[in-house]
Every structure is written in structure tokens, then in C-alpha cells.
Amino acid sequence: MFNCKKCDNPGNIILRKKDLYCTECFKTNINHKFRACIGKNKILAKNENVLICLSGGQCSTVLLDLIKNGISLDNHKKLWITPVFFHLMGMRKESDDELIANALIKQCNHYDFNLYIGHISEYLLKNNNVQEINTLPQENNTLINKFNDLLSSMSVSSRNDFLSKVHRDMYVHFAKLLQCKYIFSGETLGTLASNLLTNLTIGRGSQVQYDVGFCDNRNEVRILRPMKDISQEEIDQYIQINQLSPASCISNNQENCLQTIIKNFVTDLQENYQATISTVCKTADKIGVGMKQCKKCKVCESDIGENSNKLSALEATNYSSSVSVGQQQLTSDSENFAHAMFPYINQSLCYTCSKMFSEMDDSNDVNLKQILLNK
Amino acid sequence: MPISCRTGCGRNAVLKRPKTGDALCKECFYWAFEAEIHYTITKGELFNRGDSVAIAASGGKDSTVLAHVLKTLNQRHDYGLNLMLLSIDEGITGYRDDSLETVKQNRDDYEMPLKILSYKDLYGWTMDEIVAQIGRKNNCTFCGVFRRQALDRGAALLNVKCIATGHNADDIAETVLMNVLRGDIARLKRCTAISTGSEGTIPRVKPLKYTYEKEIVMYAHYKKLVYFSTECVFAPNAYRGHARALLKDMEKIRPSCIMDIIYSGETMAVKEEVTLPTQGICVRCKFVSSQEVCKACVLLEGLNKGLPRLGVGKSSKAKKMLAEYNAKQEQEKGSLEQAIIDLDDSSNLIDDINQSNKVTKAKSCRSGSCKSNNKVSNGSTVNNDKCSSKECCTGKCKSNQGNDIDQGNSKINSLLEEYGINDAQKDIPNGNGHGSNVSKSNGEIVENSDEDGEVLFNDQDEENSCAGACGKMGSLQIGF
Where would a tag sit more exposed on chain B, N or C end, judged by fewer CB atoms within 10 A? Predict the structure, then answer.
């Protein structure tokens, strides 16, 4: 059996270690997965402005190509969106950062697209200026330093988590500035499986639907993940077949943090159990929002629970920390103590963001946390 | 330079709490450890005054510590509970036989009555015999499914209000991860509940739900509690091992992740449109099940028919297997019929089946009134396997499973009587020197306890590995 599963022509692409496809069927299939994901969710109206988030990595390269193919069609299958391309800088070393941004501009221009670029440090001081297209933003060094100080006071795991929330927030911010009601982001199957486990591990279990599902509707600007059914394996093949060149090579981030451990774990398990990633993602599809809608977390915009008297891991953690310092009973003292562990919990912050806050050190600039809370 | 206890009691700290990182002296650690469990019990409203409570005792560290702490707290805070121990003997040579000795020691130490039920009596099979059939993989499925039901049976016999199990925080976090990896949404939903049980069933509670495994090990160690700490001889192949390895790695980076995972599990919800299995009662054994016939009955039937894989894996495969089995039966029956036209053949048939399947274990109806319950398997689905044999059975045998189990229950009355044992001192980690090590370096004890945690891989863990590794059906709501 050396023939394509679909059309019986000679196949040359093996997926999942056993399924053979020919190039044509493979391409059709990837395109179909992408379009079906958008189509069946029936969220987009015709000719919506959609902010397309590009990181420069493999997935974003494929996303760009798929969109180009979609909107350049001239039949009933045409993708009816008006894409606005956007890239967020400030995630890497300064020199790399510029290289990637420039490469991305080139990549977009190659497709006859324009690229808007923002800088992540603007999170602290949102202004309403949009950079000119295809140019790097002017760097505000004080702001960048402030932001980096804030980051470096956190543990690596918390920092990564915080950065993902900042990303989300900045995408929404720029989408609003650029009159987009929708955002496409390029997470693929494997990424989402890791994200689900990460979410669970850091206490964001009730937010899985937003962070891993197709549509994140915490804000009026909705974040969609049209690549969610495409696997890393397929991305690799697609790039090879179409001879695409990603703007940045995969940053092989091997920091010692929860996210890395989980990612490696999922990849390893997938090697032996080919169904791992898709099972995890199927599970994610069934998890809904656990909290009643009342207040929203100021950092991640998720619903936050009410202060209840019921026993949960939160109460148990608080109790642990107070008996560990010799408090006999839960008194007002220990409540203060708990407050130090979980600042603003269930008031303005969710469990995980609150924990993150307790790690942040803003002693250099007392206002930083306040800025975040007042957003 | 000795570090003083964080509580300000004036003593020197001997350990750093794995859970909070605070350095505590022995006495303050005991106090905090017990206070937390007391808090969990009272805040979670686990028990009512006057209740009889069965502690599911394996002889491992969790159940030993649970028994010890419950006894202590019951006296200290006057819960007014009537505590007893309940053990299940799976029949695993080199593992359970030894650990049961430890349980007997506990019984004497804590002055609690002890009841032991064995798989052999309940189901007619020991785990050793089951493993001989199914092999080294998937055997945890049998063990877990059977134990869940066995505990229920034991609790019913003891007439208790609830069963307290030794599941600790690590176990629960692990189960959350595993249920995600396995895509088991129904278990994911309920595995973090502190008390499980629906109407008509005996609830199970987990007083150690928020207690870290490492702290349990340390508590047992400093208190010099006697416990059994060998890993189940059959456990290493369990899928749960993956989830455990992940959790251990993550705990090294962020110890609080165990509590965070539990918090995640507690706060997440299943989408409304997702259909979850509904809980009912097994038509055969009348114990809780989400299917018409519970997993225990399916597994047992598989064993008795020489199709040990019947209850493992997809139900479609099970149907196929049964169909093939029945076809074969028909064939054999056909040839027999040709050979013996005058058929008073039930016993012949059994012999024939036993030979053809090479199953020495295939049981005949224990009541003796129905010698040919193996013939029964003509039904085309699992559910159908009631003793359809009007020809052979006068109705005394409703179904072979049910009968076996009823028989089992009566057999339990012939409980093994056990008395004093001396040998249970094994595997207690050598305590001398720990204290001094620790006061020198705070990190050290964590290392030590970590090792302990791995060496003392105990039965409770194994219990979980089973609970998770088993298939979808089973007595869902009881276990994880």
C-alpha cells in the first residue's frame, strides 16, 4: 500500500505514522480543516475586519499562507474577510526582535499585505497611536525597562502565564484601534493540548473554554483559533511542500518552567500514544465555564467566583498557610495573612492572577500593580 | 545554625513543610497536619455525630495515617464516630498478603474492628489468577473495578454510614491530569469532589484530600507509624504512571501546583450540551453502575468465559468477541447435537467448553442447582447473558454473576480470623539522623521525603492507578 488514502494516486506524505497522502489531497485537507473550522462555527459575517496575529513562527507562516489562498479565490469558496495583519514585538532579545519583525514585513509584503507592529511594553501605558504600516514602533526605553522589571520579579512559570495574558490583552487593544471585531490567532492542536494542561496546572481550570476553545469571547472583540484542528506534523509538511520560510526559527525554549515540562510531556506521550493530543483537545471541547458570570478578573477578563464559605482548595491553602505560622483559629489576622497570599482574590482578580500578583514585585514603582488593576 | 520553628514556639525546626515551605518543629508539624485534616472534615461536613465510618485500609501509608489521625481527632474533638477498618484482599502474592499483616497490626494498635473481604470469595478469582489470564497489561482495570465494588459490599456488611478513603492531594491532582489525558469527562467532573455517592449508595469521603503525599510520608515517619510500602507487583504498567511522572516533575518547580490542579478541577464545569452517563443500578448485581450491566459483571463474565479482554477497551470490540464466542458455541453445540441426539448434555457441554477454551477457571453455577451456566452464554450481548437456560435451570439461577456474588457475600462470613503479628516493622524509613540533617539544611528534608515518597510507593497509589485505568463503565460514582 503506497497509495494515497483518498485518491489512490501514489502518496508521499505520512501522517500519524500510518496514513499516506498525496501532496494534493494533503493540501486540500489542510485547507479544508482551516476553512471548516471557521465555517462551521458561523461567527464571522461577510467582509468583517479580522486582526491576524503573526508571531513569525511556523504556525503563523502557514496561517498567512492559508489566508492568502482563501481570499484570492474567485469562486463561492472565497474567504470573505478583510485581514489586518499585526505583530507584537518585545518577546525576544532586542536584536532578534528587530530581525524577526523585518522578516515578517518582508513576508507580508511578498503576499501584498501590510503589517502593523506594536510593542508589548505598551501594555503598561496604552496610548491610542497606531504605528504606520510596515515600520517598527519607536522604542520607549523607560517603559520597556519598567515592563522587564515587572517580569523579572516573577517566577518563569508565572511570567509565561502573565505574558500570555498580556498578549491577549494587547491583541484586543490593537484590534479595537484597527476597527476589528475579530482576531485570528494561530494556535495549533499540539499547542492547545499543552495549554489545556498548563491551564489546569496553574489553577485556570474554569477558563479552559476561553483559552483553548475555538472562540474566546471574554471581550467584545472575539479571538478565534481557526488552526485548532491542524497538528504540528501537518504544519511541518505544509511548510516543506509550499517551500515557505518562517520569519523566526522555533525558539527552542527550554527554560525550567511548568510550560516547558508540559510541552515536552505531551510531545513524548504523543510519540507512544498517537491519540494523546487529539484526546486532550476533545476533552477541552467539553469543558465549559465553571463560574457564574458576575465579576471579571482585571488581568485575564475571566469570570471570577464569589467568596463562598464552601471548602475549596483556596480555603484549604489559606488555612494551611495560617496554621503553618501557628495561628490557632482563622482570625482576622489570618485573613490578612491570606490576603497577602491571594491579593484581591474574587474582588478584582481570579485565583491564578491573584497568585501571580503576589509574586510581582513593584517596589521600584509602586504604581505598576495599580495600573494593572485600574485598566 | 539551627532554624527556629516558624510558629515561634521556641523549638528548632526539623523540617520544611512541602506544602507551604515553612520550617516547623515536629510538634508544630503534627499540630498543623492534624489541624488541616480537622478543618477539612468540619468545613467539608464529612461526618455526622454518631456515624459508623469504615476506613478503607490497605496497610499503606495513606490509610495508616488516615486511621491514626481519625482516631486522634475523634478523641480530641469528640466527633462521636464509630471507626472501623475495612480491607480488601485482592489475592496478590508478595504484596497484599504482606500488607494485610500491616492492617492487622493497625487493628491492634488503634483498637478498631477489622473486616477483610477477598476477591476469591466475592468473585471466585484472585488477582494472581486474573493476571495469569489477562497478562501484565490492563490487569489494573480488573483490580480497580472489583475493589470499588468490594468496598461497597464490605461497607454494606459493616452497616456503616460512609467509607473514608486515604486519597491524598497528589492522588487527586494526578487523577485530574489522567482523566484529561484519557478524555474521561465524566470522571473529570467528579474526581475532585470530597464526598461522592448518590442516593442509595454509601458515600465515600476523602479527609486527606488537601494533604500532600510528602507530608503524609513525613508524618508517618516521625510518628513511627507502621505501614507497608511495597509497590504492587502488577502496577508498573499502569497508564497512571505517566500522569504521576508529570505531576512529580511539576511539583519540583512549583509545589503549590497540586493545590492549583485541585482548584482547577473544583471550579471547572462540563458544558451543558455534553451528555454524561447517568447512574443506575446493575441489573445483575444491583450495585451502582452507569450501564445496564456494571463493569465488574462484564469483566467477571469475560473471565469466566475465557475471554479476559471482554471488558477491556471498546465495547464494540466486546460485542464482536461475544459474537465470535457465541458462534463458536453454536458450532460446538451443533456438532454435539449431531453426536448425541439424546441430549442430556449440559455437563458434556461444559466440559467441552472448558477444554476448547483452555480455561480451567471457568466456573459453574455455585448454587449447584444449575450446573450449566456456561451454556447460558448463548445470548448475543453481554446483557443477555442471564441464565436463559430455562431448559437447564429451574430459575434458581437468575444469572451466573449475581449468583456468584450472593454466594460470595455469604462466604464472607467465613472471614479469616487473624491475630497478632510481629513482623510489620519493615520499611519504616530510618528516622535517626533525619532531624539533625534537616535542621542543618532546609532543602534536605524535601529531598529525603521525596525519596521516601518514591520508595514508599504504596497501595493507595496503586488503588488509584486501577481506578483510573479501568474502562468507562464500572461503578462510576464511587471511585475516581
Answer: N
Identify the domain boundary among A285, A305, A327.
A285
Half-sphere exposure of residue A262: CA atoms within 13 angstroms, side-chain side: 27
The total of structural domains in chain A comes to: 2
Instruction: For residues B421 and A34, give the distance between their C-alpha atoms in angstroms, rounded to a whole number.
Output: 67
Q: Which residue of A has its CA nearest to B172?
A: A313
Residues A326, B6: C-beta atoms closer than 8 Å: yes
Judge whether A306 lies within some domain. no
Q: Which of residues 101-130 of A touch B (CB under 8 A)?
A: none
Cα torsion B360, B362, B363, B365: sign: negative
- Find chain A residues with C-beta within 8 A of B17's C-beta: 324
Distance CA B350, CA B356 (A): 10
Residue B171 lies in a domain: yes
Q: Are both A217 and A354 inside the same structural domain? A: no
Whether A299 is covered by a domain: the verdict is: no
Indicate the residue among A266, A285, A304 that finishes a domain.
Answer: A285
Which pLDDT band, with edges at 50, 70 and 90, does A63 fall under? Answer: very high
Which of A132-141, A147-156, B210-219, B396-405: highest mean pLDDT? Answer: B210-219
- Domain CATH for A241: 3.40.50.620
Of the candidates B177, B184, B267, the beta carbon closest to that of A290 is on B267
- A279, exposed or middle or buried, with CB in 10 Å at 0-12, 13-18, 19+? middle
pTM for this entry: 0.79
Tell whether A348 is within 8 A of chain B (Cβ). Answer: no
CATH of residue B29: 3.40.50.620
Same domain, A248 and A352: no
Query: Domain span at residue B130?
Result: 15-272
Instruction: Round to whole Å and give the CA distance between B413 and B72.
Output: 30
Yes or no, beta carbons of B267 and A323 under 8 Å apart: no
In which residue are the cell numbers 501590510 written? A114
Does A318 lie in the same domain as A278? no
The CA distance from A336 to A255, in Å, is 34
A24-45 pLDDT per residue, tens? 899 999 999 999 999 888 888 8
Do A207 and A333 share a domain, yes or no? no
Q: Please give the sequence-ordered ranges of beta strands (E in DSSP) within B233-323, or none if there are none.
A: 269-270, 280-281, 288-289
The CA distance from B243 to B253, in Å, is: 16
Give, in order, the Cα–Cα distances in Å from B144 to each of B124, B153, B412.
Answer: 16, 14, 20
Is residue B6 in some structural domain? Answer: no
Host domain of residue A130: 36-285
Would you call A326 and B183 a contact, using CB atoms and an 8 Å cutoff? no
- pLDDT tens-digit map of B232-242: 777 665 678 88
Which residues in chain B have their CB less than 8 angstroms from residue A290's CB? 267-269
Largest CA distance in chain B: 93
Its sign, for the CA torsion B256, B259, B264, B267, is: negative
Residue A11 inside a domain? The answer is no
**ipTM attached to this prediction:** 0.91
Domain tally for chain B? 2
Question: CB-based contacts of B215: which residues, under 8 Å, 6+ apart?
Answer: B17, B18, B19, B33
Among B272, B292, B325, the domain-final residue is: B272
Q: Are residues B154 and B263 in the same domain?
A: yes
Instruction: Tell me if B274 and A286 make a contact (CB, 8 A cut-off).
Output: yes
